[in-house]
Design a protein that fits this description.
seven-stranded mixed sheet, alpha+beta, single chain, four-stranded antiparallel sheet, 2 domains
Length: about 425
């Protein structure tokens, strides 16, 4: 079927998660005509498509003059704006809990109100380049292949799909063997007596560990990771673990999703067999539409942010975002999770150079989210939704500044980008 060349834009954002939504909104707020395209039928990305929940910690504490400590938000800007609007429909008014259905509606409204064109059910399938410059991208849709042109493009796919298709250098997983952190299928269990379950959670986890040590589980996850969910009788589980499969290989992803659903049943059978208190009448009410991916392809850009940079809490001159979520590496081969925790009141920064490819590879492409230019270790911290949102917002501003000045994204005025971010309520970390 012939391509349908429909519209031209200033900025095209590929991927509608927190990263892509922040990128689209920030670019639009800075005068750009924006298209936001996603392969699913809703916005929210990992939060809605993978049921990733809750928001991992995106704040620290700082000392006050009276000897007390106060909460200090590191992920601000558009992310904090969204959180505060979500809290209006959250019974416990939490900074970390949210209802994913409310999130979908909120993001729909934001894009509509702020003039962002949204295209659902659009899967990136092609890139047209002239030298080191992207001219257009193509999406497979129900109407066939549709082609759109723009002055700048932002990869918010999580898997660096646009970078990869554009011929930019990428890396997969850890350097030694390209293995990525495990994939996980989150799921929700309803009709739980939550007070009874939480009262007995320590004993349930103890028995789970005994079963794991005895080889009764095929799932190598070392613990039961479960969160309360702000609906009566509902718990949220992040307990499956699928290892040694490539998140960029569709056959591997298919295998992973099947295996993860089997692991869900295995855990529910465990609850029934041990007669876990509170789970007597429980059942799985929903598993994620697709498996969650912690790590896959990452851009190898102008600067590769390292784990050492993070642990040193490095403050870059071109910083555009900050974080202090622990370096949280789930074993790519099986059981075990390693952590490096940051001290209260400290944070690292993320440089603008980690959002852009090398100029000779592409001069009008930026990246936001978990596929920015980082090492395996650094990615284990920057991959959470709050930080992804802030890098997406910075990418949107960077695209707008580059387009307005008719410059390559590598030559955009970083000081101007930082000033716009700060004025809009974001925190660059410096």
């Amino acid at each position: 079927m012939a391509k349908m060349n429909t519209r031209q834009y200033d900025v095209i954002v590929v991927g509608g998660g927190f990263t892509g939504c922040a990128a689209a909104l920030s670019a639009s707020r800075n005068g750009m005509k924006v298209l936001l395209a996603d392969s699913s039928g809703y916005l929210g990305g990992a939060a809605s498509n993978n049921l990733i929940y809750p928001f991992m910690q995106y704040f620290t504490s700082v000392p006050e003059s009276d000897g007390t400590r106060s909460k200090f938000y590191l992920s601000r800007g558009i992310f904090l704006e969204l959180v505060r609007e979500l809290k209006e429909n959250d019974s416990d008014k939490s900074d970390q809990h949210f209802l994913d259905e409310e999130l979908k509606l909120l993001l729909d409204r934001k894009m509509t109100d702020e003039g962002v064109d949204v295209l659902f059910h659009a899967t990136l399938c092609g890139v047209n380049k002239s030298g080191n410059h992207i001219e257009s991208v193509s999406f497979v849709t129900k109407s066939g292949v549709m082609e759109f042109s723009a002055k700048a493009f932002i990869d918010c796919t999580g898997d660096a799909d646009l970078c990869f298709m554009s011929g930019c250098k990428t890396a997969l997983g850890r350097p030694a063997d390209s293995l990525c952190q495990p994939m996980t299928l989150c799921f929700r269990v309803g009709n739980v007596n939550k007070p009874l379950f939480w009262k007995n959670i320590a004993e349930i986890k103890k028995i789970h560990k005994e079963w794991l040590d005895a080889g009764k589980f095929s799932n190598p996850r070392e613990n039961i990771l479960v969160f309360d969910y702000p609906i009566d009788g509902v718990l949220h589980f992040n307990t499956t673990r699928v290892v040694k499969l490539d998140p960029t290989n569709p056959f591997d992803v298919t295998k992973a999703e099947m295996e993860a659903r089997r692991q869900v049943r295995e855990l529910m059978d465990f609850f029934r067999e041990i007669k876990a208190p509170g789970m007597e009448n429980a059942s799985v009410i929903y598993s994620a539409p697709s498996i969650g991916v912690r790590e896959s392809r990452m851009l190898v850009g102008e600067y590769v942010l390292t784990g050492e940079d993070l642990m040193a809490c490095k403050k870059f001159d071109d910083a555009i975002a900050a974080g202090n979520y622990d370096i949280d590496i789930h074993n790519p081969e099986g059981t075990g999770t390693s952590h490096y925790y940051f001290e209260e009141g400290t944070w690292y920064t993320i440089p603008y150079r980690s959002l852009i490819p090398k100029k000779d590879e592409c001069d009008n492409l930026l990246v936001g989210g978990r596929c920015i230019s980082v090492t395996h270790e650094a990615q284990a911290s920057i991959r959470i939704m709050p930080i992804c949102s802030t890098t997406g917002e910075a990418a949107g501003v960077g695209a707008a500044v580059a387009v307005k000045s008719a410059k390559a994204v590598q030559d955009a005025d970083v000081g101007e980008i930082q000033a716009i971010l700060t004025e809009s309520g974001a925190f660059t970390g410096i």
